[in-house]
Amino acid sequence: MRKFGIAAMIVTALTIGSAAPTSFSLEGPFAAQVPLSTRGTERVFIRFNPSSPQLEVRVRGQTQRLGLTTLEDTMKGDVLVSDFNFDGYADIAVPSGIGYGGVNYFYDLYTFQTSQSKFVPLRFPSDTGLCNPVIRPATRTIEMDCKSGPWYYSTDYRFSRGKPYIYRTGEMVLLNAFDENALVYAVSIYNPSGLALRSSISDDPHREVAPLRYLPLPKAMLYSAPRASAITASYIVRGDAIRILGLYSGEAGQWLKIAYQSRELGRIIRWIFLEV
């Protein structure tokens, strides 16, 4: 039987189910063995030699060769090994592209299929695919932040029946009139069928926590709805603490849905208008 190895250190690594993937740099040769799963003692053997444009993988007596498309680039990236789809088996992510001088790292993901005893490419339902992935085993979510132009966009995946679906998106939004802490995220949550369940505003694109801000204007009238005719006799003043619950942008400015703690009425939900 041919031995699997090159003139490099053999590495035993990876805890299946951990948040941080085990990474292997493509800047030089390596040979490694990692656990196939949390169950049993089976191993996956991985080998890379810079003279080859492929990653060699052997498991259960079968050898596969996975293409590496970043080898001609100045930045070659890392091979990542972890349980990306939370099924208890190791998966392999190989770099497919690098953008913005190393800000964005894109990957092709190969998941282990027990019925075929090999790694099979897994497609993601968005144009960005797998970009800067962060694995969250506690919530069984893959979180991603990818730069496009001056903005970062977030797309989080969960799995349903073994297939990834977009669970959450986050898009940067600037608040009018706020010089400091002007940046928030418009966050949307979806079900496995792609139906939008809810939307919110958050400081974190991967969490639903209403941002706390302090009114920067001398005065802002309170509205019962996001339209001029819904004005009330109440108002808030500079420095008042508000929680931002929603946002509606128009040509003339932004409507913010806020929660405010009134001394007389307790917590109230109203709208304020911020001009462009």
3D architecture notes:
β4 and β5 (54-59) form a beta hairpin. Helix content is 0%, strand content 56%. Strands 2, 7, 8, 9, 10 and 11 form a six-stranded antiparallel sheet that branches. It has 276 residues and is mainly beta. The model is unreliable at 4-10 (pLDDT under 50). Among the domains are: 1-122, no CATH class; 212-275, SH3 type barrels (Roll), CATH 2.30.30. It is built from no helices and 23 strands.
Question: What's a quick, concise take on this entry?
Answer:
This protein is an all-beta fold and 276 residues long. The chain contains no helices and 23 strands.
Shape: elongated
**How does the helix and strand content classify structurally?**
mainly beta
The oligomerization state is single chain
- Using only CA atoms, what is the Rg? 24 Å
Q: What's the pLDDT, averaged over the residues?
A: 91
Q: How many distinct beta strands?
A: 23
Strand percentage? over 45%
Distance between the termini: 72 Å
Individual helix count? 0
Identify low-pLDDT runs. 4-10
> How is the biggest beta sheet arranged?
6 strands, antiparallel
Proportion in helices: under 10%
Succession of helices and strands = EEEEEEEEEEEEEEEEEEEEEEE
SSE layout:
Elements: E1 10-12, E2 22-25, E3 30-35, E4 43-48, E5 54-59, E6 62-67, E7 78-82, E8 91-99, E9 104-113, E10 118-122, E11 130-131, E12 133-136, E13 141-148, E14 151-160, E15 163-174, E16 183-190, E17 196-202, E18 212-214, E19 219-223, E20 231-237, E21 241-249, E22 253-262, E23 266-275
Parallel strand pairs: 1-3
Antiparallel strand pairs: 2-7, 3-4, 4-5, 5-6, 7-8, 8-9, 9-10, 9-11, 12-13, 13-14, 14-15, 15-16, 16-17, 18-21, 19-20, 21-22, 22-23
